Amino acid sequence: MKRKHYNLVIVLFLFLLLWCYIEFVNLLPKSLAIAIVLLKGEVIYIDSITFTTTGPIYRQIIGSDLWGNKRVVWVDKKIAKSVNLNDGISQGEAIEIAKKSGINKIETIQLTYKPYIDDPGLVSPSVPEGVYWYIRGESISLFIDFFSGSIVTKYTK
Predict the structure, then answer these.
(1) What is the pLDDT of residues 42-88, one digit of tens each?
(2) Over 60: is that where the pLDDT of 36 sits?
(3) 45 forms bridges with which residues in the sheet?
(4) Composition of the chain by helix, strand, coil, percent to 5
(5) What domain of life (predicted)?
(6) Is the pLDDT of residue 128 over 60?
(7) Hey, is 101 helix, strand or coil?
């Protein structure tokens, strides 16, 4: 009987730790993020899982859906955004736009989702809600709209 109580206490403690992690980090553990994306049917095959580092931090899951389309899904505590990679410009096209804008050496390139946040201190108010290619060079950073290919914001150091 004591053993059952001990096991129950351990399980409850682990759930409490998991809840604290999710609540304070505002990000699901990798395995739970994968489970949500798979269960919601956003993708059925996962190619990669990374973090976005521009703006709010999301787990970025890239994979293929039921019809073979490449999708990108951003997850924090839930699915924040999901897009089909065929609906926007490719990474190569974004790099060409960056080169034409004066970026010769790319330090960072990332497809990112910027949500609407009513706090200009967290996300630059000059970058509206949307999906962007974020490209950072030695002295220039760009947010290129994923769907139109237009430069939304250009920062210089």
Answers:
(1) 999 999 999 888 777 889 999 999 999 999 999 988 899 999 999 99
(2) yes
(3) 64
(4) 30, 35, 35
(5) Bacteria
(6) yes
(7) coil
Is the pLDDT score of 94 beyond 80?
yes
Residues composing the chain: 157
Return d(Cα 20, Cα 22) in angstroms, integer. Answer: 6
- pLDDT of amino acid 57: 83
Mind listing the domains of the chain with CATH numbers? 2-86 (3.10.450.40), 88-156 (3.10.450.40)
Dihedrals phi, psi of 100, to nearest 5 degrees:
-70, -20
Query: What is residue 46's predicted lDDT score, i.e. its pLDDT?
Result: 93
What's 70-94 look like in SS3? EEEEEECCCEEEEEEHHHCCCHHHH
What are the φ/ψ torsions at residue 12 (nearest 5 degrees)? -65, -40
Mean of the pLDDT values across residues 132-155? Answer: 92
Q: Which backbone phi and psi does 126 adopt, to 5 degrees?
A: -80, -5
In angstroms, the CA 109 to CA 141 distance is 10
CB burial readout 117-152, b (16+ within 10 A) else e: eeeeeebeeebeebbbbbbbbeebbbbbbbeeeebb
